[in-house]
Amino acid sequence: MPRFVIERDIPEIGSSERDQLRGAAAASNDVLVAMRSEGKNIAWEHSYVVQDKTFCIYHADAPEMIDEHAERSGFPASIVTEVKARIDPITAEG
Fold first, then answer.
1. 69 near 31, Cβ under 8 Å?
2. Quick one: pLDDT band at residue 84, thresholds 50, 70, 90?
3. Which CATH number goes with the domain that contains 15?
4. Model-level pTM?
5. How far apart are CA 72 and CA 85, in angstroms?
6. CA 21 to CA 15: how far, in whole Å?
7. How many Å apart are CA 2 and CA 58, to the nearest integer?
8. CB 56 within 8 A of CB 94
9. Which of 16, 20, 47, 78 has the largest CB neighbor count within 10 A?
10. Which has the higher per-residue pLDDT, 94 or 18?
11. Order of strands, edge to edge, in the sheet holding 53-60?
12. How far is residue 30 from each of residues 27, 51, 71, measured CA to CA in Å?
């Protein structure tokens, strides 16, 4: 299943308290459960929270599912980019 990086513009998200982030995660999870119950193949791996953005890693059959999740959850999907490869320090080893 393709992996996507989703850049979400959310002003001051980096200042959110843990309970606010927990609520946001729960809202996202609720939409994901609903979408999967409709036969849509989508999953959230994790997110990075910075000052005014989040960078979320999702798996989905198509980018349109990312857009649908964003619309249904109320979290913007400002930029959606499909991951073509993953590298790390071990990649350099022969």
1. yes
2. very high
3. 3.30.70.3090
4. 0.91
5. 29
6. 10
7. 8
8. no
9. 47
10. 18
11. 42-49, 53-60, 3-9, 79-82
12. 5, 25, 13
